């Protein structure tokens, strides 16, 4: 994830963000959709889209070819550019755009039209909050800008301030009342639901761009669980503690000192009452799988691919079903 608009965002690019950022360019989805009917030469594509300069269109098509979403055919002996066609990876990339559209429609300030300047701003703000780990920090408790500056030292104060302002302007965070000095902020429900397109984008990266994009780390795992779990519907009688964990790679395990990343969730009367990132090596109840497995479970509902165990396996199953339903179950 140098072929997209990722250069528009300073700082590190985290898992899912590179592909997500492609859709800040309104041409991306329109080019993909135009190829659904078959191969297209650049001149024909330009006639269909009309409004984009041909140089800009050529660059966007080139980016999609670089990531394998489009493939160039042979131009024979003609001097004109070869036609491009949609690949299976490109068909999957369309699903990322569709997930983003479903998220944009739910904006609390009113549905955001796809391909609009508003959509571009919202996607950039989302990528900026995700890359900076601001979303992870605000998932569990309010923070002021000064507080965020203390726990995210790798990013400058002005950069954090810009990202926070962008997220607030687009309805992804909001201020909360507090008697303390400074203004604390929390993520909105809409921001929590942004994990859906991030998951679809992250799965695309793992399947089609594993060497070119950032790996899924404990940061993304913890942030995703903490953001979505408050939205997960649970049976009224659900109660107890459960670990939801992802098996990490050998390199990550060496860095972290353990081979799991995730959260310990406390549930009482069908409500999530706490969500902590400290992993218990002997949890009372648990659900476990690789990052790729968890993505398939959350996106497609392939629950049988996870391992469940402990004293209350039904609690673990209820939580996993709740995660899937919160993000994708109502589609």
Structure, described:
The protein is of the alpha+beta class and 331 residues long. The chain has 2 domains: 1-76 and 85-214, Winged helix-like DNA-binding domain superfamily/Winged helix DNA-binding domain (Arc Repressor Mutant, subunit A, Orthogonal Bundle), CATH 1.10.10; 218-329, 2-Layer Sandwich (Nonspecific Lipid-transfer Protein, Chain A), CATH 3.30.1050.10. Helices cover 47% and strands 14% of the residues. Helix 14 (291-300) packs across helix 15.
Tally of strands: 9
Mean pLDDT rating: 88
- Assembly level: single chain
Specify the CATH homologous superfamily of the largest domain: Winged helix-like DNA-binding domain superfamily/Winged helix DNA-binding domain
Amino-to-carboxy terminus distance:
28 Å
- Give me the number of helical elements: 15
Sheet with the most strands: spatial strand order: 7-6-5-8-9
CATH class of the largest domain, anyone?
Answer: Mainly Alpha
Beta-strand level of the residues, as a percent range? Answer: 5-15%
CATH topology of the largest domain: Arc Repressor Mutant, subunit A
Q: What overall form do the CA principal axes indicate?
A: globular
Give the name of the CATH architecture of the largest domain: Orthogonal Bundle
Low-pLDDT segments, ≥5 res: 1-11
What class, by secondary structure content? alpha+beta
Number of domains: 2
Radius of gyration: 21 Å
In which range does the helix fraction lie?
40-55%
What series of H and E elements makes up the topology? HHHHEEHHHHHEEHHHEHEEEHEH
Largest sheet: 5 strands, mixed
